[in-house]
Design goal:
single chain, mainly alpha, 13 helices, 76% helix
């Protein structure tokens, strides 16, 4: 198992390091932007230019320096970057089947479920490294760039942001593991889960604009990580994390079951 994990980590170490640097740097830059708005006193104007339909989801992050410091954790591009990484790493079992590596592994007295465990460990662990790098970037930016006398974001809020983004990515990554346990081509697994994730994100976004779509949005994992309500205190973090956690466990169970029973 250790050799399998080390091999997988070695294959993704360079892009993982690059992504860690990008997310860390983005958080520091965001603190610099928030400090600039704080000095100029423009937060009230920022909150007013947000469209009315999006104010519950976005406006709370534009009301103060402390709240804007948490904006990066639920920015659409950042969310899709972290989720996309989880998908990429989690589809490795399909790549093992495609390359024939799985034949070498199962030819030995090694349980095939270890390939799923390996990919889960690497996907979940590397995703956690990304979100923790964002947290370290936030703290670094606060120490270096926060204007004197302004209130920093609460530690609880930063923890909620990190935990929600991490568990959301684990949920989608577990779904990617389940899909890769069915397919024989990594590209197919990547395409299916990536397109589905983007579609679900769009459904969730439409739910913010159009009330008839809200029920459909509740069926997406992205519905359970809206940063604005978390900042405003109108969301239920325990419910969000519970739903995402249960979905992750179910998807993992499907991945293990299918990979154990499939014809390789």
């Amino acid at each position: 198992m250790i050799a399998l994990v080390a091999r997988s980590l070695g294959r993704v170490a360079a892009p993982l390091g690059a992504l860690v640097a990008v997310l860390f740097g983005f958080q520091v830059a965001l603190i610099a932007v928030a400090a600039s708005f704080s000095r100029s006193g423009e937060f009230e104007r920022l909150a007013q230019i947000v469209p009315a339909a999006l104010r519950p989801a976005l406006a709370p992050a534009l009301t103060s320096f402390g709240s804007m410091a948490a904006l990066g954790y639920f920015d659409a591009i950042i969310v899709l970057m972290v989720v996309g990484w989880a998908i990429y790493v989690a589809t490795e079992p399909a790549a093992d089947v495609e390359s024939g590596l799985v034949d070498l592994v199962v030819a030995r007295p090694v349980p095939r479920h270890r390939l799923i465990t390996r990919s889960a460990v690497v996907s979940f662990g590397s995703t956690l490294a990304l979100t923790l790098a964002m947290g370290i970037g936030t703290l670094t930016g606060l120490w270096l760039l926060a204007p004197p006398g302004v209130a920093w974001p609460e530690g609880r809020l930063l923890w909620l942001m990190i935990s929600h983004l991490t568990l959301l990515s684990w949920c989608v990554g577990a779904a990617a593991l389940a899909v890769s346990a069915w397919t024989r081509r990594r590209a197919a697994a990547l395409a299916v889960v990536s397109i589905a994730s983007m579609a679900l994100y769009l459904v969730d976004s439409l739910g913010l604009w159009w009330s008839p779509m809200e029920m459909a949005a509740r069926l997406t994992p992205f519905y359970y990580f809206h940063g604005g309500p978390l900042i405003a205190g109108t969301s239920d973090p325990a419910q969000n994390l519970t739903v995402l956690g249960i979905a992750t466990i179910v998807a993992l169970a499907v991945a293990y079951w299918r990979f154990e029973t499939r014809d390789l």
